[in-house]
Amino acid sequence: MNKKTIVALSIVSILLSGCGQEEETFHEPSLALAVTHPIKQDNTIVKEYVSQIRAIQHIEVRAMEKGYLQQTFVDEGQTVEQGQPMFKITPTIYEAELHKAQAEANAARVEWENTQSLESQDIVSSTELAVEKAKYDKALAEVELAQTHLDFTDIRAPFTGKMDHLEARTGSLLDEGELLTTLSDLSEMWVYFNVPESQYLDYVQHGRDITETPVHLKLANGSVYSQTGHIDTVEADFDNHTGTIEMRASFANPNSLLRHGQTGNILMDVAYPDSIIIPQKATFEILDQTYVYVVDKDDVIHSRHIQVAAELPNIFIVSSGLDENDTVLIDGLRRVANGDHINPDPVPAAQAFAELHLDAE
Known about the structure:
Layout: H1 3-24, E1 31-36, E2 39-62, E3 67-72, E4 79-80, E5 85-89, H2 92-120, H3 126-151, E6 154-156, E7 161-163, E8 173-174, E9 179-196, H4 197-205, E10 214-218, E11 229-234, E12 244-252, E13 263-279, E14 283-286, E15 289-295, E16 301-312, E17 315-320, E18 328-329, E19 342-346, H5 349-360
Parallel strand pairs: 1-19
Antiparallel strand pairs: 1-18, 2-9, 2-13, 3-5, 3-8, 4-7, 5-6, 7-9, 9-12, 10-11, 10-13, 11-12, 13-17, 14-15, 15-16, 16-17
Helix pairs in contact: 2-3
């Protein structure tokens, strides 16, 4: 190798080494990413619970006596008034028993009155008079019992309500206790629903009075029932199998829209006063835990664990981990890592949350 070649190689090596030094000292510019502040305000969310709708009174109407169903005065689906005749069972046997009891009572009365006369003349003792009086009282009781059996052949509505199916037809031979129909009082409805233990504890521990809490009812077609209900009962025990406790809400039913056996969803407003909210897009999850990137005064991001108390459309209500003075990253979370330096692009909180609603539309 001659001297010219050696000199040329040396010059190339110097140039390459100079380029390498420039690459080592080059720094990639910081990313310009949107940031904003959480908002602290009063918030309300709607909890939804599957429910069963029941009439305030729902009974089975049964035959109290054995016999033939002589007459049916009502029809299926009919609204009947309290005291209105519904069914009549053949009364012939019970009428005969009543007449027999009345005759025996008349005979006992005559014996008692005759003994009274004899006792007043000191012909019989007061003890004999007392025995005759007891016989007369027993005969009157037999009359009352026979009258009761006869009255049971006339079946009347115990309250105003709506009938269901007829389970027996006129002319049917009935046994004592046989089902004739069912009757529901639809003036007020009881709606039963189950609340998870954790949510029940949230209500109680925050000093909320669950009873008398106003609730709404979403019907099967998605519409919300016009009447507002109130929780009036909380069961004593938790269901160990489901981890829930049953509650009952009452709803007025002036137009009889609700019927016994319907289903729906209870809608309950739950208040979160002075709570922190952030956009959902500002969060990420690691092993089922929720985190955000918080920007410090040197524009360096740090991951921070937060507790989510509740969820609204595109928004999380945060119970711990953030306050309204923190700055959180809301853009490019997948392009950065913990400890990265960024060029923050501040977005007013009001604008950031307004854009969430626009995105949802």
